[in-house]
Amino acid sequence: MPLKTLVKLRRLWHLTAQVYISAQTTFDLNLSSSSVTSTKTSSSDHSQSSLQQGANIVLIELPGSKGTQSSQLSKHYKICRLSTGDLLRQATQDQSSSEGQRIRKAMEAGGLVDDHIVLSLIDKNLTKPECSNGFLFDGFPRTINQGEQLEQLLASKQKRLHAIPDDLLKRRTLGRLIHKPSSRTYHEEFHPPKESMKDDITGEPLYRRSDDTTEALNARLNTYHKQAIPLIDFYHQRNIHRCVDATKK
Fold first, then answer.
1. Which of 131, 129, 123 is nearest to 12 (CA)?
2. Across the chain, what does the average pLDDT equal?
3. Which helix (H) or strand (E) holds 234?
4. What is the pLDDT of residue 116?
5. Which of 3-7, 139-143, 199-203, 241-245 shows the lowest mean pLDDT across its residues?
6. How much is the average pLDDT of 105-117?
7. CA distances from 216 to 20, 61, 107, 213 (A)
8. Do 149 and 236 belong to one domain?
9. Active site residue ranges
10. How many domains does the chain contain in total?
């Protein structure tokens, strides 16, 4: 980790984070004391305080269930969203890279990419100016080893698990559609396009992600369930873990 990154991240350790739970309720988290208080405030209050205070957030969730929440949280708190899924997919675009091809094969098979590759991608992106007010990790860490390395680098204070049944998760994931040129997303059931399999704005075709198959999702779920419980215990023992019902809007 470059020195300038460590200096920047050390400055973030002392921020007070507000974690958005629903449209009406937030939990104010004083990071120095780890106290939690339920409060109700207006959206304008949220926007002003989040812009000034920032937040450091890690989401630990089932695959396919956290993209919407992480996007909303990062916009709300004016922090950078580092999605390891997006970073890995970008890495696969380089056809001349053997590392990119290894990542592609692992993703299409529903497996997980080696820790050192994921950590390297995150390291490169944490130096971006948009991360100076805080950061949200989407899809990382997945294992205790990753959690320990992240703890050593960041000493992050707030971890959240979005709880959702496997059957609902499968409905959410397998129905996803994407307009590749713009990255606009739709869902067959929960956010359908106006015309089947066509982008609302351009009328161009929509596609499913190559790893959104029943076989790949089942493999990802099996891997998640094996690894998530010890990782959740890891953070729970440090009193920095919260569970959120992800079945609600």
1. 131
2. 71
3. helix 214-236
4. 80
5. 3-7
6. 82
7. 31, 17, 8, 5
8. yes
9. 66, 142, 176, 209, 220
10. 2
Q: How many C-beta atoms lie closer than 10 Å to residue 162's C-beta?
A: 19
67 with 185, same domain: the answer is no
Q: What is the distance, to the nearest Å, from the Cα of residue 60 to the centroid of all Cα atoms in its chain?
A: 8
Q: How confident is the model at residue 93 (pLDDT cuts 50, 70, 90)?
A: confident
Q: Which amino acid is at 104?
A: R
Indicate if the pLDDT at residue 3 is higher than 50: no
Residue 78 has pLDDT above 60, yes or no: yes
Give yes or no for residue 201 having a pLDDT over 50.
yes
Answer yes or no: do 159 and 202 share one domain. Answer: no
Cα separation, 157 vs 53, whole angstroms: 14
pLDDT tens-digit profile of 115-130?
A: 888 877 887 787 777 7
User: Helices (DSSP H) in 109-142: which residue ranges?
Assistant: 115-125
Q: Give the CATH number of the domain where residue 124 resides.
A: 3.40.50.300
Cβ neighbours around 81 below 10 Å, total: 21
Torsion 26-32-35-37 (CA) sign: negative
What residue numbers bound the domain in which 186 lies? 176-211
**Which long-range contacts (C-beta less than 8 Å, at least 24 apart) are formed by 104-111?**
107/210, 107/211, 108/210, 108/211, 108/216, 109/216, 109/219, 110/211, 110/215, 110/216, 110/217, 110/218, 110/219, 110/220, 110/223, 111/219, 111/223
Tokens for 58? 């890690």
Residue at 67 is within a domain: yes
Separation of alpha carbons 50 and 63, rounded Å: 27
